[in-house]
Automatic annotation (TrEMBL):
The lineage of its organism: Bacteria, Pseudomonadati, Pseudomonadota, Betaproteobacteria, Burkholderiales. Residues 45-93 form the Methyltransferase domain. Signal peptide: none annotated. This is Methyltransferase domain-containing protein. Pfam families: Methyltransf_25. Keywords: Methyltransferase, Transferase. One of its GO terms (biological process) is methylation. The keyword Disulfide bond does not apply. It comes from Orrella daihaiensis. One of its GO terms (molecular function) is methyltransferase activity.
Amino acid sequence: MGEFSAQWLALREPVDHAARSARVRDVLLADLRKRHGEQLSGLSILDLGCGSGSNLRAIAPHLGGQQRWCLVDYDDALLDAARLALKAWAHVVVSETTDSLQIMYGDRDIEITFRSADLSGDLQTVLAWPADLVSASALFDLVSRQWVDRFCDALRTPLYAVLSFDGQMQWEPEHPFDQTVRQAFCMHQATDKGFGAALGPSSGRYLCDALKQRAFEVTIDKSPWQIEDLPSAFHDMLIDGIAHAVLETGSLGEADMDTWLAYHRRASLCLIGHDDLYASVP
């Protein structure tokens, strides 16, 4: 679950897209129309921790005919994966250079720049790049309170932050170890992910409060993964990742963890909670 391989990101993308809060997205679109006109054309979007470009594929079809995206990640392999995935998603590849791509998706003309940056150290520089919207998916549960405070102090544009883990985790049918696994995984999520002690499941609440303290108008809503088509490669990779994290905490031994894994590979429902958030600038 915390592994950012191209394979994992590809498996989770349809689940992510289905989970996104329509209410938060509608607030985002309404606010952008007030600021930029009904057509929403010509917008520049800065996507932080872009992974394989899933955020662009989720949002771009709702925006105007002309779009400029800057995809930022620290992992060059993920930037390469984003380029390949976007070329496969596009209806037409118009042009391509070493650090950019222009595609058509329907009548959307999308210019994409790929930028490598370490958000733990280059945050101020990255947020100074021109943008009408900053977006991020599954990022804020990885960062620290101090990083969020610096981010909010520097933010000058609306923010669309989706799929921050909120600590909710359940399966049907239940297993006696479920609560122990959930607590251990939440504990693991709060360890250092490269930005200091991570906010983990408290990230949505903390980000919301930090933005409100700086006069942003914030809309927040739940966006849970609801996985019913089981078993699946996505679910197998999800519970394997959870088990790996739990074993690192020492909360369960390998034999108990194997029992839990075998039981939930036959689950009929898996629900993993997230928060989606939109913040409008004062």
